[in-house]
Write a structure and sequence with these properties.
Blueprint: H1 2-11, H2 17-33, H3 37-57, H4 63-74, H5 78-91, H6 96-108, H7 112-125, H8 129-141, H9 145-158, H10 163-175, H11 179-184
Helix pairs in contact: 1-2, 2-3, 2-4, 3-4, 4-5, 4-6, 5-6, 6-7, 7-8, 8-9, 9-10
Length: 185
């Protein structure tokens, strides 16, 4: 993927908006997974430059705002991440990934009421297994275990091959000593 997107940015430096964004997101992924601090800084710098380049070429393209928000959030630059998510919402107010980013920011800030609003908005827009699982995690963090168990069940019903909601539901069932139900997960 890197060579494909890099080739496009070299051949079409003024029109390869998606290539800049995608290449930047690849470097963001490398930044998020490497433990080597020098490599992390290089990947962060590359991701930031490439995603920002996509924004400068097409300021009304929402995907780079999501990618830059995610990168900045991962780097602990929460205020800047929030600005990017909110800028993206001005362009595309029904983009669920922007609401996920904001929900996670509010969880980090321990503003659970606002986080809940954004997690519920994601469910309204895109009720996927992942959205139900994320909302269940939020409910569990806020002590609403019974509701979390129900949400994990919704996630499971939408995707039978993902072990995470089974595991998380099983942990909650075990916590509440619902041994028979937990043993089925």
């Amino acid at each position: 993927d890197v060579s494909l997107w890099r080739d496009e940015t070299e051949k079409e430096p003024k029109t390869a908006i998606q290539a800049y964004n995608n290449l930047g997101y690849i470097y963001y992924g490398k930044y998020a997974t490497t433990q080597n601090q020098a490599e992390r800084q290089n990947y962060y710098d590359s991701a930031y430059y490439l995603i920002s380049r996509a924004i400068s070429l097409k300021p009304n393209y929402v995907n780079p705002y999501i990618a830059l928000g995610d990168l900045l959030r991962s780097a602990g630059k929460y205020a800047d991440a929030k600005k990017n998510y909110l800028e993206g919402l001005k362009m595309l107010p029904n983009e669920s990934d922007l609401y996920i980013g904001l929900a996670v920011l509010y969880v980090v800030a321990k503003n659970m009421d606002s986080a809940g609003i954004y997690f519920r908005k994601v469910l309204e827009l895109k009720p996927t297994a992942e959205a139900h699982g994320n909302y269940a995690n939020y409910l569990s963090m806020t002590g609403k275990d019974d509701s979390a168990i129900i949400e994990y069940g919704k996630a499971i019903s939408l995707t039978k091959d993902n072990y995470v909601p089974y595991m998380n539901r099983g942990i909650l069932l075990k916590k509440h000593e619902q041994w028979d139900a937990a043993s089925h997960d």
